[in-house]
Amino acid sequence: SRSINLAVIPGDGIGQEVVAQGLKVLRAVLPQDVKLETREFDFGARRYHATGETLTDADVEALKQHDAILLGAIGDPSVPSGVLERGFLLKLRFLFDHYVNLRPSRLLPGVATPLAGQPEIDFIVVREGTEGPYTGNGGSIRTGTPHEVATEVSVNTAYGVERVVRDAFARAQARPRKKLTLVHKNNVLAYAGHLWTNIFNKVAKEFPDVTTDYLHVDAATIFLVTDPARFDVIVTDNLFGDIITDLAAAVSGGIGVAASGNINPSGAFPSMFEPVHGSAPDIAGQGKADPSATILSVALLLRHLGYEAEAARIEAAVSEDLAARGDSVRTTDEIGDALAVRVAG
Amino acid sequence: SRSINLAVIPGDGIGQEVVAQGLKVLRAVLPQDVKLETREFDFGARRYHATGETLTDADVEALKQHDAILLGAIGDPSVPSGVLERGFLLKLRFLFDHYVNLRPSRLLPGVATPLAGQPEIDFIVVREGTEGPYTGNGGSIRTGTPHEVATEVSVNTAYGVERVVRDAFARAQARPRKKLTLVHKNNVLAYAGHLWTNIFNKVAKEFPDVTTDYLHVDAATIFLVTDPARFDVIVTDNLFGDIITDLAAAVSGGIGVAASGNINPSGAFPSMFEPVHGSAPDIAGQGKADPSATILSVALLLRHLGYEAEAARIEAAVSEDLAARGDSVRTTDEIGDALAVRVAG
Ligand SMILES: CC(C)[C@H](C(=O)O)[C@@H](O)C(=O)O
Ligand SMILES: CC(C)[C@H](C(=O)O)[C@@H](O)C(=O)O
């Protein structure tokens, strides 16, 4: 009999509420014969304030014992900017070698977009997750003086770029349009840009049925608002991916419905699934948060673990729910309930 | 009697056409007593192909003899990506210490935007122009092998950050809303982020009447499409500024009307004014390019040289022209003529 051993990290702010709905829908969609075991972890601001810890070695070992991780959101204004981000979220992405940061963007029927004319939007961004400007390499001398110099080093390796580019080509090949766009800034960041461009062009030869193109990141932001339909699959570096996926989420219905997966395709470490949104402390505990992004992240989690039919059922349920919701204002719990009913039905 | 000694660099593609209109409008708006002298320089793809040069020491000396520079656009597909960008455009920004890269965004009446509901957009971005990831620091080892490592170093100094932050505060203070937003990614790029944030907070104390806030660059892209009216003045680093100003141009009428100034406020070197758009080789020589962005860049040039009334006249003319244009398709030349008439009248 099958089983899923899931690590659950509700985290801070609305993380608690949305993860509860994610689990509700997960339980509703799973076939009877699949045994779901969950273990909750208390990472985030409260643990940090209580113990000063963000993620200990023992935590990492405990997390490793799971098939996957479901994360709500980490972050609170009471903790200095960056402490939880670098001490927990990025640390985990790097330790568990989540080199494919997968972020789909689909504008579902009935969903509002800030763009005029309700354009067709259906693309995925494959964001590199373990290199680039996110490595924490850098430093500062004469800190706090008028002579301070602060550096940040973007580190890019052929090994790291090739594996994520290869993953993106495979994803593009599996989609009807079979189109892959490399986004970088190779006219300015020449060293990293040449590495990315050369590897992209080399791997392209192995995927002759995939159409390719290249855009500078600045131009990509223009197309994301003027012609998002031009995109099918995008592959890009860690920082550019961070920036364009928030923009992509904004144009395709907002961060209330933007899901993401931090994936280690080799399976050597558990992959982690989380909504793109943050902990939104201003609305926490009020039942105002939209759990759809977390529930769609559960779909990505199921797909990653091989439950394709269940993943598709969640995605269809969210589509139908959004199309049907009209102007009704529903609580976090009500949306979770409605989706649990749909996926079970 | 007054005079302007202007270096003119038409450059590649549509650069030629739009600069011609910029000069036409400049001549029409200048009072009789101002003597305009222009010298044209042939930088760009043709010069590069003919001589292999992008910008020689002698060129730099010659450019220094001018009060300001008007640039069309540099770049052509026949030249490898980055050669002209780094060998000419960025080289000049760095050599002439253009640390204020000024990019206003205003959605003018009658201008189409990809955003629904025609939002109010009227902000300026002060992009740092001489530091950050644009310094060309970086390198590659084992280049072209499976073991390549390529780095890019973002270099940030207290000196460089403070002067541009100070400039942005002064600009914010001079505007009715007096609001300044710092855009960075200080939760990930901790060293550079702390430097920017600390200096921003320190300088803020000297401008108590300026309201300040902070946004991560990813969040800033969301607000640029969901609530652009929240922005008044933005100050940001070289790369983030590159990205968000293209997005800002897209939402506020497109790069056909986006102007920019590469400014050295001390006056030690000539400042350079250019449309945000590129050389657009696909439409070059067909009279299809909108010269408005170049003409608005001429307005920034005039303001920089102290001709405030003339700058305002050009901006008003472009506003009126855009509001009046309806669906008529006009050539580059016709738009330039219409604006020359308006500013003279
Ligand atoms: C919280 C932050 C460190 C993170 C990132 O920059 O990757 C977030 O913006 C994201 O996109 O998941
Ligand atoms: C052409 C390129 C080097 C340049 C930049 O990145 O600064 C351009 O995109 C700009 O914004 O002026």
UniProtKB/TrEMBL annotation, chains A, B:
It catalyses: (2R,3S)-3-isopropylmalate + NAD(+) = 4-methyl-2-oxopentanoate + CO2 + NADH. Pfam families: Iso_dh. It is an enzyme of class 1 (oxidoreductase). This is 3-isopropylmalate dehydrogenase. Residues 5-339 form the Isopropylmalate dehydrogenase-like domain. Pathway: Amino-acid biosynthesis; L-leucine biosynthesis; L-leucine from 3-methyl-2-oxobutanoate: step 3/4. Keywords: Amino-acid biosynthesis, Branched-chain amino acid biosynthesis, Cytoplasm, Leucine biosynthesis, Magnesium, Manganese, Metal-binding, NAD, Oxidoreductase. Homodimer. Gene3D superfamilies: Isopropylmalate Dehydrogenase (3.40.718.10). Belongs to the isocitrate and isopropylmalate dehydrogenases family. LeuB type 2 subfamily. The record marks Y134, K185 as: Important for catalysis. Its EC number is 1.1.1.85. SMART domains: Iso_dh. It comes from the Bacteria. It is found in: Cytoplasm. Binds 1 Mg(2+) or Mn(2+) ion per subunit. Mg(2+) binds at D218, D242, D246. Substrate binds at R93, R103, R127, D218. InterPro entries: ICDH/IPMDH (IPR050501), IsoCit/isopropylmalate_DH_CS (IPR019818), IsoPropMal-DH-like_dom (IPR024084), LeuB_actb (IPR023698). Its cofactor is Mn(2+); Mg(2+). NAD(+) binds at G278, S279, A280, P281, D282, I283, A284, G285, Q286, G287, K288, A289, D290. Catalyzes the oxidation of 3-carboxy-2-hydroxy-4-methylpentanoate (3-isopropylmalate) to 3-carboxy-4-methyl-2-oxopentanoate. The product decarboxylates to 4-methyl-2 oxopentanoate. HAMAP family: LeuB_type2. GO terms for molecular function: 3-isopropylmalate dehydrogenase activity.
